[in-house]
Amino acid sequence: MELDEGRLAALQNPGKRTGRGGRGSFFAMMLLERFAGEMTGSPPGSEMLRAVEAARAIGARVQFIDLPIGMTVGSLRKLPWKEKVRLGVDSMVSLALLPFGGFNMSKLTDELEEQLRVFRLRYPELSRLLLDVREQHMAARLRDIMYFTTGQVVAVVGFGHMKSLARSLASMQTKPAYSTSMTWKISTGH
Predict the structure, then answer these.
(1) Distance between CA 22 and CA 128 in Å, rounded?
(2) Is 85 exposed, middle or buried (0-12, 13-18, 19+ CB in 10 A)?
(3) What are the tens digits of pLDDT across the range 78-134?
(4) C-alpha of 7 from chain center
(5) Are the C-beta atoms of residues 76 and 25 closer than 8 Å to each other?
(6) pLDDT tens, residue by residue, 143-152
(7) Is 175 inside a domain boundary?
(8) pLDDT exceeds cutoff 90 at 39
(9) In this predicted model, what pLDDT tens digit does every residue of 56-75 receive, in sequence order?
(10) What span, in angstroms and rounded, lies between the C-alpha atoms of 112 and 148?
(11) Whose CA is closest to 19, among 89, 93, 74, 95?
């Protein structure tokens, strides 16, 4: 699950969110979440809440694979000022224009690769923190879960992380399966 326990708690109890990691970082994360919510038409993280509910309803074990939200929010303080200013301006402009723009979510998913490329060019450090660092952590957690688990594993992650995680996991060696068989030859004396 592309969550950590703290993020799940914050999603389940939105009134109890705290600004761990500093006010500016928390505000930046809040703007990013609001921007994502405006684009998709649903509150940020609502799909993760539904996935947790569905997993628990069928008795599946839920594992959290994302970096703790405090680490991600705290790392936003280290963003270069140029990116912080650009992010603030872009967020405000986007939030002002989205209600009037008739945003089409299918267009977002169709052009996601290009949008991620532009995002990486415009915000190199932010994309490293929000995408690369988290995806490395998620891939490592998924490898551990898959190695030490029998049966099916279902990972629920955001659309933007799917290709990168699939590439990371494609080269994963599965644990060796050992099979033992014995053949006995009994001599009957003939």
Answers:
(1) 20
(2) exposed
(3) 889 998 888 888 777 766 665 545 444 445 556 777 878 888 888 899 889 888 999
(4) 11
(5) yes
(6) 999 888 888 8
(7) no
(8) no
(9) 999 998 898 998 878 887 88
(10) 33
(11) 74
Per-residue confidence (pLDDT) for residue 74, from 0 to 100: 82
> Looking at the domain assignment, is residue 25 inside a domain?
yes
> Distances in Å between the alpha carbon of 54 and those of 1, 41, 50, 51, 188?
12, 21, 6, 5, 61
Report the b/e string of 7-39 with b at 16+ CB within 10 A.
bbebbeeeeeeeeebeeebbebbebbebbeebe
Which residue range(s) make up the domain with 35? 5-170
Number of structural domains found in the chain: 1
Residue with token string 């069928």:
58
- Closest Cα partner for 73 from 9, 134, 155, 137? 134
CA pair distance 144, 91, nearest whole angstrom: 36
Measured CA to CA, the distance from residue 88 to residue 157 in angstroms comes to 26
**Residue 177 included in any domain:** no
Residue with tokens 């569905």: 54
Is there a domain that residue 184 lies in?
no
**Cα dihedral 152, 158, 163, 167 sign:** negative
Residue 180: band (very low, low, confident or very high) from pLDDT cuts 50, 70, 90: low
- Which residues does 10 contact at the CB level (< 8 Å), separation at least 6? 16, 17, 69
